[in-house]
């Protein structure tokens, strides 16, 4: 029966070696992580330290460098858009639609550069915008229906627009058609650039 005890020791397999406690592994990992993070921070700060050291030790030699050419102004969506699009109040649309037609139209300042649009909705998904576009087309809205992709603060929106209309009468007729179908639209006046 002595064989049983010898077989039990052979199966254990560690041969009397001690295991390393878990807290030593934890501390080793912690120190490695701290060391790597310190190395990364030093690499980020090192160029700044070198630049400040060279700036203080060597006097700046005057050089004749030409002044940088003035850059052309960069056009930003938010600065250009308010100049191009103006929301037309509903009262103005209705009063213009009810006004009698003059025999000779009186030209407004810049009337040749204005056009009117209706914005039916704005969606975050293009599928919703396309669905509304199809619905508006089936309604028989007189002018063209389009979907415009716009990026606002990093988020893409899809605007569904109806138009352009040459005057406010067309805008009023299309807006009434949309409102009778439960769609609230915004009238816009666009100035051509």
Order of helices and strands: HHHEHEHEEHE
Q: In terms of per-residue confidence, which ranges show pLDDT below 50 for 5 or more consecutive residues?
A: 101-110
Distance between the termini: 103 Å
Radius of gyration: 37 Å
Strand order of the largest sheet: 1-5-2-4-3
Percent of residues in helices comes to 40-55%
Backbone shape: elongated
CATH level 3 topology of the domain at 80-98 and 111-191: Alpha-Beta Plaits
By DSSP, the count of extended strands is 5
The CATH architecture assignment of the domain at 80-98 and 111-191 turns out to be 2-Layer Sandwich
CATH hierarchy, class of the domain at 80-98 and 111-191: Alpha Beta
Name the beta content range: 15-25%
Give an overview in words.
The protein is an alpha+beta fold. Among the domains are: 26-56; 80-98 and 111-191, 2-Layer Sandwich (Alpha-Beta Plaits). The protein is 47% helix and 20% strand. The protein is built from 6 helices and 5 strands. It has helices spanning 2-12, 22-57, 77-84, 90-98, 126-139, 168-180; strands at 85-87, 114-123, 145-152, 155-165, 186-191. It has a 5-stranded antiparallel β-sheet. Residues 101-110 have low confidence and may be disordered.
Blueprint (SSEs and pairs):
Blueprint: H1 2-12, H2 22-57, H3 77-84, E1 85-87, H4 90-98, E2 114-123, H5 126-139, E3 145-152, E4 155-165, H6 168-180, E5 186-191
Antiparallel strand pairs: 1-5, 2-4, 2-5, 3-4
Which features does this protein show?
5 strands; 193 residues; single chain; Alpha-Beta Plaits; 5-stranded antiparallel sheet; 6 helices
